[in-house]
Amino acid sequence: MRMLLIGPPGAGKGTQAVRVADHYGIPAISTGDIFRANVSEGTPLGLEAKEYMDRGAYVPDDLTNALVLDRLAQEDAGSGFLLDGFPRTLAQVSTLDDCLEATEGGLDAVVQLTIETDAIVDRLLKRAEDQGRSDDTEDVIRKRLDVYQEQTHPLVAVYAQRGVLVSVDGMGEVGEVTERIFAALSGRVV
Protein backbone atom coordinates (compact mmCIF):
# COMPACT_ATOMS: atom_id res chain seq x y z
CA MET A 1 0.00 0.00 0.00
CA ARG A 2 1.45 3.34 -1.09
CA MET A 3 -0.51 6.22 0.37
CA LEU A 4 -0.47 9.96 0.83
CA LEU A 5 -2.32 11.78 3.60
CA ILE A 6 -3.17 15.36 2.63
CA GLY A 7 -4.99 18.16 4.37
CA PRO A 8 -4.50 21.61 5.86
CA PRO A 9 -2.37 22.28 8.92
CA GLY A 10 -4.25 21.15 12.00
CA ALA A 11 -6.39 18.57 10.19
CA GLY A 12 -4.87 15.73 12.22
CA LYS A 13 -2.61 14.24 9.54
CA GLY A 14 0.23 13.37 11.91
CA THR A 15 -2.06 11.61 14.37
CA GLN A 16 -3.90 9.70 11.66
CA ALA A 17 -0.71 8.84 9.74
CA VAL A 18 0.66 6.83 12.67
CA ARG A 19 -2.63 4.99 13.23
CA VAL A 20 -3.22 4.16 9.56
CA ALA A 21 0.39 3.14 8.91
CA ASP A 22 0.36 0.85 11.95
CA HIS A 23 -2.88 -0.74 10.74
CA TYR A 24 -1.43 -1.53 7.31
CA GLY A 25 2.04 -2.43 8.58
CA ILE A 26 3.81 0.27 6.57
CA PRO A 27 6.06 3.12 7.70
CA ALA A 28 4.58 6.58 8.19
CA ILE A 29 6.98 8.94 6.46
CA SER A 30 6.72 12.56 7.59
CA THR A 31 8.89 15.28 6.09
CA GLY A 32 9.17 16.91 9.52
CA ASP A 33 10.42 13.64 11.02
CA ILE A 34 12.86 13.18 8.12
CA PHE A 35 14.27 16.68 8.63
CA ARG A 36 14.68 16.15 12.37
CA ALA A 37 16.25 12.67 11.96
CA ASN A 38 18.78 13.85 9.36
CA VAL A 39 19.69 16.89 11.45
CA SER A 40 20.17 14.84 14.62
CA GLU A 41 22.24 12.21 12.73
CA GLY A 42 24.39 14.94 11.17
CA THR A 43 23.93 13.64 7.61
CA PRO A 44 25.15 15.93 4.80
CA LEU A 45 21.53 16.53 3.70
CA GLY A 46 20.52 17.11 7.32
CA LEU A 47 23.26 19.67 7.85
CA GLU A 48 22.16 21.49 4.71
CA ALA A 49 18.49 21.42 5.80
CA LYS A 50 19.48 22.68 9.26
CA GLU A 51 20.91 25.86 7.73
CA TYR A 52 17.46 26.70 6.35
CA MET A 53 15.60 25.58 9.45
CA ASP A 54 17.82 27.65 11.75
CA ARG A 55 16.96 30.75 9.70
CA GLY A 56 13.25 29.92 9.88
CA ALA A 57 13.18 29.48 6.11
CA TYR A 58 11.46 26.76 4.10
CA VAL A 59 13.70 23.91 3.05
CA PRO A 60 13.85 24.19 -0.77
CA ASP A 61 12.12 21.61 -2.97
CA ASP A 62 15.37 20.10 -4.28
CA LEU A 63 16.64 19.38 -0.76
CA THR A 64 13.23 18.20 0.47
CA ASN A 65 13.00 15.91 -2.57
CA ALA A 66 16.46 14.46 -1.90
CA LEU A 67 15.63 13.75 1.75
CA VAL A 68 12.26 12.14 0.98
CA LEU A 69 13.56 10.08 -1.94
CA ASP A 70 16.43 8.86 0.24
CA ARG A 71 13.87 7.77 2.87
CA LEU A 72 11.67 6.04 0.27
CA ALA A 73 14.72 4.06 -0.90
CA GLN A 74 15.12 2.45 2.54
CA GLU A 75 14.21 -1.19 2.84
CA ASP A 76 11.18 -0.78 5.11
CA ALA A 77 9.42 1.37 2.48
CA GLY A 78 9.85 -1.25 -0.23
CA SER A 79 6.49 -2.89 0.43
CA GLY A 80 4.59 0.34 1.01
CA PHE A 81 4.47 3.60 2.91
CA LEU A 82 2.25 6.43 4.04
CA LEU A 83 3.49 9.92 3.17
CA ASP A 84 2.60 12.86 5.42
CA GLY A 85 3.74 16.30 4.30
CA PHE A 86 5.10 15.33 0.89
CA PRO A 87 4.36 16.23 -1.80
CA ARG A 88 3.24 19.76 -0.94
CA THR A 89 3.61 21.37 -4.36
CA LEU A 90 2.87 20.40 -7.95
CA ALA A 91 6.64 20.27 -8.62
CA GLN A 92 7.03 17.74 -5.79
CA VAL A 93 4.22 15.65 -7.32
CA SER A 94 6.34 15.33 -10.48
CA THR A 95 9.36 14.28 -8.43
CA LEU A 96 7.35 11.66 -6.56
CA ASP A 97 5.82 10.42 -9.82
CA ASP A 98 9.30 9.93 -11.30
CA CYS A 99 10.45 8.05 -8.20
CA LEU A 100 7.42 5.76 -8.14
CA GLU A 101 7.54 5.21 -11.90
CA ALA A 102 11.08 3.89 -11.48
CA THR A 103 9.68 1.21 -9.14
CA GLU A 104 6.79 0.47 -11.51
CA GLY A 105 4.03 1.74 -9.29
CA GLY A 106 2.10 4.76 -8.20
CA LEU A 107 0.09 5.81 -5.21
CA ASP A 108 -2.71 3.42 -4.33
CA ALA A 109 -4.66 6.04 -2.40
CA VAL A 110 -4.58 9.69 -1.41
CA VAL A 111 -6.62 10.41 1.71
CA GLN A 112 -7.74 14.02 2.00
CA LEU A 113 -8.72 15.06 5.52
CA THR A 114 -11.30 17.83 5.29
CA ILE A 115 -12.07 20.26 8.08
CA GLU A 116 -13.64 23.71 8.20
CA THR A 117 -11.28 26.68 8.48
CA ASP A 118 -12.73 28.02 11.75
CA ALA A 119 -12.44 24.57 13.33
CA ILE A 120 -8.77 24.39 12.27
CA VAL A 121 -8.08 27.85 13.70
CA ASP A 122 -9.74 26.88 17.00
CA ARG A 123 -7.83 23.56 17.10
CA LEU A 124 -4.44 25.20 16.39
CA LEU A 125 -5.03 28.06 18.83
CA LYS A 126 -5.79 25.50 21.56
CA ARG A 127 -2.68 23.49 20.63
CA ALA A 128 -0.58 26.67 20.71
CA GLU A 129 -1.97 27.53 24.14
CA ASP A 130 -1.37 23.99 25.46
CA GLN A 131 2.20 24.00 24.14
CA GLY A 132 2.93 27.59 25.14
CA ARG A 133 3.54 28.70 21.55
CA SER A 134 2.91 32.40 21.57
CA ASP A 135 3.98 32.68 17.91
CA ASP A 136 0.94 30.72 16.69
CA THR A 137 -1.55 33.56 16.62
CA GLU A 138 -4.78 33.53 14.67
CA ASP A 139 -3.19 35.71 11.96
CA VAL A 140 -0.22 33.34 11.61
CA ILE A 141 -2.50 30.30 11.49
CA ARG A 142 -4.71 31.88 8.83
CA LYS A 143 -1.59 32.74 6.81
CA ARG A 144 -0.46 29.08 6.97
CA LEU A 145 -3.91 28.05 5.76
CA ASP A 146 -3.66 30.53 2.87
CA VAL A 147 -0.30 29.04 1.89
CA TYR A 148 -1.84 25.55 2.03
CA GLN A 149 -4.73 26.66 -0.22
CA GLU A 150 -2.33 28.24 -2.70
CA GLN A 151 0.42 25.61 -2.83
CA THR A 152 -0.92 22.26 -1.64
CA HIS A 153 -4.68 22.20 -2.22
CA PRO A 154 -4.21 22.06 -6.03
CA LEU A 155 -2.81 18.54 -5.52
CA VAL A 156 -6.33 17.42 -4.57
CA ALA A 157 -7.52 17.98 -8.16
CA VAL A 158 -4.49 16.13 -9.57
CA TYR A 159 -5.12 13.05 -7.46
CA ALA A 160 -8.89 13.19 -7.97
CA GLN A 161 -8.32 13.17 -11.73
CA ARG A 162 -6.11 10.08 -11.31
CA GLY A 163 -8.91 8.33 -9.42
CA VAL A 164 -6.93 7.72 -6.21
CA LEU A 165 -8.40 10.47 -3.99
CA VAL A 166 -10.76 9.73 -1.12
CA SER A 167 -12.06 12.58 1.06
CA VAL A 168 -12.67 11.96 4.73
CA ASP A 169 -14.29 14.26 7.29
CA GLY A 170 -11.50 15.12 9.75
CA MET A 171 -13.84 16.39 12.47
CA GLY A 172 -14.65 14.37 15.56
CA GLU A 173 -12.83 12.04 17.90
CA VAL A 174 -9.52 10.60 16.69
CA GLY A 175 -10.90 7.03 16.61
CA GLU A 176 -13.97 8.11 14.62
CA VAL A 177 -11.80 9.78 11.99
CA THR A 178 -9.56 6.70 11.80
CA GLU A 179 -12.60 4.47 11.21
CA ARG A 180 -13.80 6.81 8.45
CA ILE A 181 -10.40 6.51 6.79
CA PHE A 182 -10.50 2.70 6.94
CA ALA A 183 -14.02 2.69 5.51
CA ALA A 184 -12.97 5.01 2.67
CA LEU A 185 -9.98 2.78 1.91
CA SER A 186 -11.88 -0.50 1.93
CA GLY A 187 -11.61 -2.06 -1.48
CA ARG A 188 -8.53 0.04 -2.33
CA VAL A 189 -6.06 -1.87 -0.19
CA VAL A 190 -3.46 -3.64 -2.26
Explained architecture:
With 190 residues, the chain is α/β, with parallel strands linked by helices. The protein contains nine helices and five strands, in the order E-H-E-H-H-H-E-H-E-H-H-H-E-H. It has helices spanning 13-24, 31-41, 44-54, 61-72, 90-102, 117-130, 138-152, 154-161, 174-185; strands spanning 2-6, 28-30, 81-84, 109-114, 165-169. It has a five-stranded parallel sheet, with helices on both faces. The longest helix is centred in the last third of the chain and has 15 residues, at 138-152. The chain is globular, with a radius of gyration of 16 Å. The termini are close together. The mean pLDDT is 89.
Structural class by sheet pairing and helices: alpha/beta
Largest sheet: 5 strands, parallel
- Element-level helix/strand string: EHEHHHEHEHHHEH
Average residue pLDDT: 89
Q: Please state roughly what percent of the residues sit in beta strands, choosing from under 5%, 5-15%, 15-25%, 25-35%, 35-45% or over 45%.
A: 5-15%
* Total E-strand runs: 5
End-to-end CA span: 6 Å
The assembly state of the depicted protein chains is single chain
Helicity range: 55-70%
Number of helices, counting only DSSP H or I runs of 4 residues or more? 9
Q: What is the approximate shape?
A: globular
Question: C-alpha Rg, in Å?
Answer: 16 Å
Across the major sheet, the strand order is 2-3-1-4-5
> Which blocks of ≥5 consecutive residues have pLDDT under 50?
none
